[in-house]
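Notes from the 1:1 (GR / supervisor)

We went over the backlog. Supervisor wanted to see one worked example end to end before approving the batch request, so GR pasted a single chain during the call. The sequence is below; no edits were made to it. Supervisor asked that the structure be written out right there so they could see what the output format looks like.
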Amino acid sequence: MVKKKRWHCLPGQPLTEMDKQVMYWESKGKLVPTRDLILNEEQIEGIRRAGVVNTGVLDEVAKHIHAGMNTQEIDDICMQYCKDHNATPACLNYEGFPKSVCTSINEVVCHGIPKEEDVLEEGDIINVDFTTILDGYYADASRMFIIGKTTPEKEQLVRVAKECLEIGMEAAKPYGFVGDIGHAIKKHCKQYGYGIVTDLCGHGVGLKFHEEPEVMHTGYRGTGMLLVPGMVFTIEPMINMKSPKVFIDADDEYGWEVITEDELPSAQWEHTLLMTEHGVEVLTY
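Structure output shown during the call:
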C-alpha cells in the first residue's frame, strides 16, 4: 500500500525552499505537517491580536491575585476582561468545562475548575491558564503565581518549570522536530529529579483550540513532526515535584481536574509560539 503524502505543492507554482525541505524530510519517512498548518500573514496577525488580549487577561489576574481570594474571583476577572475587549474565553463550555479559565492549585496539574470554596492561602502555588478567542483566532498561555511566601521547594519547582518552557522554546528550530523540544526539557528536568507529565501535551493552536502538532515535553531528537515556518503551537511543560503520574479527581463532577498521583505539587508555564525562519516568536508575551 502506497503511503499517502501529507505535503502537497501548490499547482502551477514553482517549488519553494520550504517545499524542498518538507519534501526531503517526508521522503526520509519523517512526519511532516499538512499545508493548512502553515498559516499566512493575515492569520498570524489575527493570532497576534488574540495574544495581546490573552496577555492582558493574565496581567489583570497578576494585579489582583492574593491570599484570601477564591478562584471564582479569578474567573470573574478573566470574564470581565474578555467582555471589555470583545473577546471570548475558549474554555467556557468546551467539552463541558464550566468556567472561563483553569485555576490549578498545588497538586492540581491542570484544568482546575474555579470555585468559591477554593480560597488561596499563603504559600500556595497556582497555575492560571487562559485561552482567548478574538475574531475567530485563538491564543493560549498560562502563568504560575506564588501566593505570598512559600517553601524553597515550591519556589524551585516554579522556577524550573519556567526554565523548561524557555529551554523548549530555544530547542524549537525551523526544520527541526517536535522531539527536539521534549529532549531538551527532559535533559534539564532530570537534574532535579522532577517528573514530566506525559498524559498531556502542547498542541497546535490559532485557527482552532487544539490541532496538530502534538508537542510532547519529553522525547528524543529527530522524532515527532517537522517544524516549519508558519506553524503556530504551544509549549506547556507540566512538571511534577516527583512522580510524573496523574489521575482525574473522582470528586470533580465534570471530569476535568488532573492531580498528581502522589499529591505533591506541580507547576506549568505556557506560551503560544510562531515558528519563523529564525526560531520561535512568542505571541503571548
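Supervisor's comment: The mean pLDDT is 97.
Batch request approved.
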